[in-house]
Amino acid sequence: MNDTPIPASTLANLLTETRRFDPPPALAAAANVTVDAYAEASADRLAFWEKQADRLTWATKWDRVLDWDNPPFAKWFTGGRLNVAYNCLDRHVEAGLGERVAIHWEGEPGDTRTITYADLLTQVKKAANALESLGVAAGDRVAIYMPMIPEAAVAMLACARIGATHSVVFGGFSVDALSGRIQDADAKLVITADGGYRRGKASDLKSTVDESVALCPSVEKVLVVRRTGGEVAWGEKDLWWDDVVGTASEEHEARAFDAEHPLFILYTSGTTAKPKGILHTSGGYLTQVSYTHHAVFDLKSETDVYWCGADIGWVTGHSYIVYGPMSNAATQVMYEGTPDTPHKGRYWELIEKYRISILYTAPTAIRTFMKWGDDIPAGFDLSSLRILGSVGEPINPEAWMWYREHIGGNNCPVVDTWWQTETGGIMVSPLPGVTSAKPGSAQRPLPGIDVDVVDDQGRSVPNGGGGYLVIREPWPSMLRTIWGDDERFIDTYWSRFDSMYFAGDGAKRDDDGDIWLLGRVDDVMLVSGHNISTTEVESALVGHPAVAESAVVGATDPVTGQAIVAFVILRADAMDGAELTAALRDHVAKTLGPIAKPRQIMVVPELPKTRSGKIMRRLLRDVAERRSLGDVTTLQDQTVMQLIADGMTSGKSTED
């Protein structure tokens, strides 16, 4: 490796990938979106999005596709009016699709429900009437804190139907997190459940809501779904869902709202600052999530069974469980529990049972499946699968290959998607019927999306270069602002580069011009003058047959400025020991070059992850530098960090 330090404005481009996988010919021949879409969108971007908006049903047509007169505040399809819930339900029933299954729901204990589009429409109409009877009107905010049960989707769609703005909070967040979000949105109603099931146990939700509501004077009523049957405290604001929704009228007319009417607020977690309430509106958001779901997953709604493994508490659940799939009349699976309950084959059991053809899940889940062993998915019939998707963070090439081989039978395109809560919908992804896929690369922006990789000065980097991922032109599903804080919206996303959106991700462009995501620029390490992405070192480690998952951080070093410290989880059949950790360090050096060789490698039983599956590298940096641990309340398992810290103290690591 060249020892000349690279400029600080550039990210190292260390990983190379030569494997290519063309689309299966039959899939390519019948693909929803062909290569022509790129040229069409390039020729007239706004006309392209106007065509996608025409896939929806509008009560009033727009008079202007994009209003960008006051950047960065965009308005899409101005003058247009539509109802989001009507587009997800009524129009399909009116088209004769009422008996199509909308949701195959599977509870963690094994209880099931099959809900058709006609069933779902009836439930949403009743819920809409119930909300209105409780005084909820268009423009009011409703907080939703629920497990993965169908009523969660019903609640969201009922809000959309009456023009109320929903704020879904993941049903594992603390009193502080929930109450802060309720207060910020000034929510009038909270919809929750007595509890849900997680890892074989009933988890209580109602008590968290009770404590939160006590801090939130804006809340007038709490609507409670009975899920577990556990005992709950009952207050004067509390109402059972069945008593209110169950007795409501089944007749409700969906009225149209302006394309820019607020649809939802979704808070991004902040580790040090107040969470940001990301505001999404109606017409542009639904246009993009509907189109991208149709395009990226090549959805054939008559025959496909789709499954997104996310929770509705995250944006993936909003865009690719509720609004995208349902606007396309998809049949989908919704699962309440975790992948290892009651056994580690539960995902594959569900795919076999429901003949799922499209699976969308996170790299952290894929690497967990790798850790558990290839033999588990091999015990199930996964032949129904035809498209595999990845979401949430960059996927390393070896996890990508494992996913394709062991889940996709070496025949399913893998669509590695990049997008964010802020973007609303998918921005960068292969198209399954078009793209010659590269393991680990999200590849290129979707038609109609203008994404670039730039240097410190905002100039496009050449092929082979690295820098910052930006979006140069407005897009339909973009966030409109941070709720109640326009100034923070400008400062956070639009101040780094002139007229370009930047949310903090690093990326590189390979020799073919394809994009590789490198994670947050905060996670870039400066080692002896070289900027090295944690993502690339993690990918190199997982490329070793003994490693299932890894997390890498930079720790202060008196010689190199920062040194690389790695934490690894081994595969089930791997043997821990000094020989292995030495071999892993050498493997990284061979793969990426000597500059990227970790100073330390520590074998750990688990990594600190949030409930959405993201690795908390901030906490690992605390451990690596032997500082006291920061806030661990957002972790899925708060005991993990103590185990890791104890291991560091006892010296169970390898270093020169």
Ranges with pLDDT <50 over ≥5 residues? 1-13, 651-656
Helix content: 25-40%
Beta-strand percent range: 15-25%
- Please count the helical segments: 20
Radius of gyration: 24 Å
Based on CA inertia axes, which overall geometry fits? globular
Strands side by side in the biggest sheet: 12-11-8-6-7-14-15-23
Your description of this structure?
This protein is α/β, with parallel strands linked by helices. The protein is built from 20 helices and 31 strands. It has an 8-stranded mixed sheet, sandwiched between helices. A 7-stranded mixed sheet has the order 5-4-17-16-18-19-20, with helices on both faces. Strands 21-22-24-25 form a 4-stranded antiparallel sheet, with helices on one face. The longest helix is centred in the first third of the chain and has 17 residues, at 117-133.
Brief synopsis:
The chain has 656 residues and is an alpha/beta fold. The strands form 8 sheets. Strands 12-11-8-6-7-14-15-23 form an 8-stranded mixed β-sheet, sandwiched between helices.
Outline the fold blueprint.
Blueprint: H1 25-29, H2 36-43, H3 45-53, E1 64-70, E2 73-78, E3 81-82, H4 84-97, E4 101-106, E5 112-116, H5 117-133, E6 141-145, H6 150-162, E7 165-168, H7 175-185, E8 189-193, E9 195-198, E10 201-204, H8 206-213, E11 221-225, E12 238-240, H9 241-244, E13 257-258, E14 262-268, E15 276-281, H10 283-296, E16 305-308, H11 315-327, E17 331-335, H12 346-354, E18 358-361, H13 363-372, H14 375-378, E19 387-390, H15 397-407, E20 414-416, E21 451-454, E22 466-471, E23 481-482, H16 486-493, E24 505-509, E25 515-520, E26 524-527, E27 530-533, H17 534-542, E28 547-557, E29 561-570, H18 578-592, E30 600-603, H19 617-624, H20 640-650, E31 654-655
Parallel strand pairs: 4-17, 6-7, 6-8, 7-14, 8-11, 11-12, 16-17, 16-18, 18-19, 19-20, 29-30
Antiparallel strand pairs: 1-2, 3-13, 4-5, 9-10, 14-15, 15-23, 21-22, 22-24, 24-25, 26-27, 28-29, 30-31
Helix pairs in contact: 2-3, 4-5, 4-6, 4-11, 5-6, 7-8, 10-11, 13-15, 17-18, 19-20
